[in-house]
Model the fold of this input.
Amino acid sequence: NAGVTQTPKFRVLKTGQSMTLLCAQDMNHEYMYWYRQDPGMGLRLIHYSVGEGTTAKGEVPDGYNVSRLKKQNFLLGLESAAPSQTSVYFCASSQILPGGPEAFFGQGTRLTVV
Amino acid sequence: GEDVEQSLFLSVREGDSSVINCTYTDSSSTYLYWYKQEPGAGLQLLTYIFSNMDMKQDQRLTVLLNKKDKHLSLRIADTQTGDSAIYFCAERGATNKLIFGTGTLLAVQP
Done:
């Protein structure tokens, strides 16, 4: 069972470079989320999507863009990376079920911007 | 807006009970969750509670919800060293955003 898969797992970028983080889920979930995790700040929501073709801003959207062209994929883009974007990024997906919704998380992408 | 707060650290002895607290601000929260994160890993759902419930028990875990005070707690009975981790409280509001707290690091002393 793959669940939620994030690629890459690690990446080092130079300031100003761009990159795309890929999140893929095989559970047919409607909702997908991108978070960043920083020490002492918990998980902060960057962007989320409530269905294919939709995206919405979370708590800390600046400097990031997202796309949900296919239901199973949610891409997070950094157009011009900054050191402040050094973080661990987590993707999650969820579905509202009769028994209660549960969010499944990927293993994280550790990004360092130098 | 939505905000979820937790204390940052809790230390207990093995065999004692642990109580991790969380407060939230969104009165339209539908579900509240507790997630566990072990070092270097993603988050795993421990348990959740629907907003019209005030208690849920699942083996060693007890979740208490005080909706009037917007207070959620997680009690772990007979805490073991394997319970050492960061515990996150989260809420799902009417907009379906999933908002997390800062996380509480639970350290279990042998």
Notes: Residues 22 and 75 of chain A are 5 Å apart (CA to CA). DSSP finds no helices and eleven strands in chain A.
